[in-house]
Amino acid sequence: MQELETVIALSRTQFAATALYHYLFVPLTLGLSVLLATMETIYVISGREVYRQMTQFWSKLFAINFALGVATGLTMEFEFGTNWSTYSHFVGDIFGAPLAIEGLMAFFLESTFVGLMLFGWDKLSRGKHLLVTYMVALGSNLSALWILVANAYMQHPVGSEFNPATMRMELESFTALFFSHEAQAKFVHTSVAGFLTAAIFVIGISAFYMLRKRHMAVAVRSFRVAALFGVFASIGVICLGDALGFISGEGQPNKLVAMEGLWETAEAPAGFNVIAWPDQEAMENRFALQIPYVLTPLVTHSFDGTITGARDLVHRAEVRIRDGIPALVALETLSDNPNDRDALRTFRIHGDNLGYALLVKRYAPDVTQATPEQITQAARDTIPPVGPVFWSFRIMIAAAFLMLGFLILATIYSLRGQITEKRTFLKIAPWMIPVPFIANEAGWVVAELGRQPWTVYGQLPTWISASTHSVGYMIFSLVGFVAIYTIFIIVEMFLMVKFIRKGPDDGPLPPAEPAVAAPGHTSQWSQA
Amino acid sequence: MEIYIVLKLVWWALLGVLLIGLAVMVGMDMGVGAGLRYLGRTDRERRTVINMIAPHWDGNQVWFILGGGAVFAAWPTIYATAFSGLYVVMLVLLWSMIVRPLGFEYRSKLPSQRWRNLWDVTLFISGAVPMIVFGAAMGNMLRGVPFHFEWNMVSYYTGSFIALFNPFAVLCGLMSIALALYQGGAMVMNRGTGVIRERACNLLTMAGLGALVLFTVCGLWVWLMPGYVLTGGAEPAGPAMPLRKTVQKVSGAWLNNFAAYPLLWLVPGLVYAGVLAGIACARRGLSHVAWWLGALAWAGTIGTVGTAMFPFLMPSSTNPGHSLTVWDASSSATTLGWMLAFTAIFIPIVAVYTSWAFWVMRGKVTPETIEHDEHAY
C-alpha cells in the first residue's frame, strides 16, 4: 500500500512536470501563429517589405519555440498509456478519440504547413505563402480545441456511461462530448490566453529594440500590432475565464470551493475572499480579507444564488460513498458472472456512485468493511488542496488584470505615436514577458489540481489510475525527464536570447519608408 | 456479418495502414538521420542532406503521434497495456525521439563545429534508436509479453526490462532500421546530386540487402518459435473484455494462417519483391520508383506480422488467456464508427496537402542552393 502511494505520487509529479513544461511552449505557439498570420496579411495587402521582415523575424523565434512544443508534446501523447494505464483503459473509449482526431485534423495540418511556412518563402507566391501561414495558425488552434475537448471530459464527463461488461466508460454521444460547455469555454479561454502570451512576448522584445534604437521599423510596427491584438485577447481571456468559472462552478462545485476558499455554505450575498489562509485540516480560513456582496453574482451570475461550501460537500460525498459501495460489490460479482441478474440490478441502481466507492477503497480494501471514519476520510478527500488552488487562482487573475492594464497603456501610447518616448514603459515591458507564462501555469494548476482527487471527475479516483510500476522505474523516468528537459530549456533559452539579440534581418528598406521614430506617425497604421 | 465485427476488422486494417505510414514516413527521416554521417562527409554536405527533409520531417512525424492517438482511440486496451508494460523501452523511444526536433531546428543555428557535431550525434541516436525499438516492439509482440490483468482490468507487467531486448527482438529491430536506411537512401537519391546521390545509392543497396537477410532469419525463427492459438471464448462480436477466453501456445502456430490461405504467402513476398526491384531501380537511377518499392516492402513487412498473428495483437506469454486480440481489445462500436468517419474524411485530405507540400519543395538540394537560401537549416 505504501509503495502504491509512492508510485502514485511520483506518477503525478512526473505528469505535472511534463505537462507544465509542455505548456510553457504551447500558448506561445497558439498566439504567435495567429500574430504571424496577422502580420503577413498586412504584408500581402499593403505590399510593404517591412511586414515581410517582421513575419520572417518572428517566425524564426516561432520555430525555436515550436521545436520544443513538438518535442515535449510527443511525451504527452504517450504518457497516458505509459503512466496511467488504468485510466487509459477506463476512459480510452472516449478520451482517445479527441486525441486521435487532433492528430488527423489539426496536428498534420500544422506540422505539414509549418515546414512550408519556414522554408517556402522563395518557392511560393505571396498569396499561397499567406495561405500556408493561415493553415499553421488554424492547425495549432484546432489542436488546442481537440486537446481541450479531451481535457474537458476529465473535468466534466458527459456523453458516456460505464459498461460493466467491459469494465470501462463507453461513449454514448460524441456530440455531447464535443459540445460540452466545459470544452467550448476551455478552448476559447486557452486559445485566447495563448494570443495574450504572444502579444506580451512580441511587445516585450519590440520594446527591448526600441530602447536601444535598433530595428525601429520592425519594432514599432510589431509593438502596435501586438498591443491591439493583446488588448482584445486580455478582455477575451477575462470574459471567458468568468464563463469557465461559472460552468465549472456548476459541474465541479468542489473545485469552486477550493478556488474561493469557501468552507461554509454561503447564502446570498456572499463575500469574495481577496486573500485568505486556508486550513484544510480544520476546514476553515485562519485569516481572510473579504469584499462583501461580490462572490454571489461572480459565481452564480445572479443575486440570490446559494453557493455550497466545502463542509456540506463533504457530507454529500459521504452519502454518495455509502450509496456506491453496493455498486462496487456488484461489479466484482459481475466480473465472475457477467449475467448475474441481481448484481446487474444492484449496479443499475447504484452505478452512478461507483467512483465514490472507489475513493474509500483506498483506505478500506474491502469496501463492505469500511468504517465511518474511513468514509469520512474519503469524503474529505473530495475537496482538492485548497491553499494551492486558491492561490494559483489569485495569481492567474492578478496577472490577467495586470496585463490588461499594461496592454491598454501600450495601445494608447502606440496609437498616439508616443511609445518611443515612454522610456520607463519600454524598460518595464521586457519584464512583463514572464507574466503570461506564470498565469498560464497557474491556470493549469487551478484546472488540474482543482480536479483532484479524481482523474475523471466523480468517476475514477487518481489513486487507482496509474500504471502498476515499481518505485524504481518511476524514479528512473522522473529523473530522466527532469534531466533532459532541463538541458532542453537551457539550450532553448540560449538560442532564443541569441536570436533576439541578433534581431531581425533589416536589409535595405525601400527609401519611401517614413521615419518611424518620429512622433505623430499614427497614420502608418491606416496606411498599413 | 455484424457491424461491430466489420468495424473491428476495418480498424485492424487501419492499424496496419497507420504503422505502414509511420514506418515509411518517419522511418525515411530517421534513416536519413541515422545515415547522416555516412551520406555527408563535410558539414556542407551534411547540411545539404538535412535540408532535403527539413521542410517535411515535422509533418511526417505526425504519423507517429497519430499512431499513439489512434491506438488510444481504437485499441485503448492495447494503448494502456503495451505502453505501460514496455515502460523502459517506451522511455528509450521517447527520449531518443524528443531530441530530434531540436536536432533539426537547432543544429545549423550556430556556426560552431562542436555544436553541430553534437547535434549530428543526437540526429544519429534519434534516427537509429527509435527504429530499432519500433522493430523490437514488433518482435516482442510476436513472442508474447509477460502481462496479466486483475478482475477490474488493472494490468501488471511481470517481466524485466532487459528481457525485451532478447535476440529475436533485436534482430527485428535491426531489420527495421535497415529498411529505414533503405527508405532514407531513396529519399536522399531523389533530392541529392553527385557524390551524395552515389553514397545514398550505396546505402540503399547495402541496407536493402541487409534487410532481406534479417527478414529471412526472423521468418525462420518465427517458424520455430511458439505461436498462439485461440481455442475458446472471444466471440468476434463480443464486448471488449479479454479475460474470458482460452489460448494455447503451439510451436509454429504463427504459420497457421499462411497454411490455411496459401495466397497470403504473397504478403511476405512483397518484401523480397519490393527490396530487390527497388535496388535494381535505384541503380538505374529511378530513385522515385525505388522509394515507392521501399514503401511496398514496409507494407509487406508489417502485413506479414499482422497476417501471422491475426487475430492476436498482443499475446500474453505468462497468462495466454489474457492475450489481447482483435475481438476483445477494441473500442466500442460507437467510437470505432465515429473514428472511421473522421479517418475517411481526413486521411485523403492529409494525403492531398502532404503531396502538395512535397511538390512545392521538389527539386534538387545541393550545397550551392543552401548557401543562397537564408531560410535553410
Description:
Chain A: InterPro entries: Cyt-d_ubiquinol_oxidase_su_1 (IPR002585). Chain A: It comes from Salinisphaera orenii YIM 95161. Chain A: One of its GO terms (cellular component) is plasma membrane. Chain A: Belongs to the cytochrome ubiquinol oxidase subunit 1 family. Chain A: Its main location: membrane. Chain B: One of its GO terms (cellular component) is cytochrome complex. The complex is a heterodimer of chains A (528) and B (377). With 528 residues, chain A is mainly alpha-helical. Chain A folds into 2 domains: 2-252 and 387-508; 262-383, no CATH class. Chain A has helices spanning 2-46, 49-83, 85-119, 126-155, 174-178, 181-211, 216-251, 253-260, 295-300, 310-336, 341-350, 354-361, 372-381, 386-416, 423-432, 434-449, 471-502, 523-527, and strands at residues 160-163, 168-171, 272-279, 284-291, 454-456, 460-461. In chain A, the strands form 3 sheets. In chain A, strands 1-2 form a two-stranded antiparallel sheet. In chain A, strands 3-4 form a two-stranded antiparallel sheet. In chain A, helix 1 packs across helix 16, helix 3 runs antiparallel to helix 4 (126-155) and helix 4 (126-155) packs across helix 6. Chain A is globular and about 75 Å long. Residues 508-528 of chain A have low confidence and may be disordered. By secondary structure, chain B is mostly helical. Chain B is 69% helix and 7% strand. Chain B has helices at residues 3-34, 36-39, 43-53, 57-74, 76-85, 87-98, 100-107, 113-143, 167-191, 194-224, 256-260, 266-283, 287-309, 333-360, 367-371; strands at residues 147-149, 155-157, 226-233, 245-251, 312-314, 324-325. In chain B, the strands form 3 sheets. Chain B has a two-stranded antiparallel ribbon. In chain B, a hairpin with a 5-residue loop joins strand 1 (147-149) and strand 2. In chain B, helix 4 (57-74) packs across helix 5, helix 9 (167-191) packs antiparallel against helix 10 and helix 9 packs antiparallel against helix 13. Classes of the chains: A mainly alpha (528), B mainly alpha (377). At the A-B interface, helix 2, helix 3, strand 2, helix 10 and helix 17 of A face helix 4, helix 5, helix 6, helix 7 and strand 2 of B.
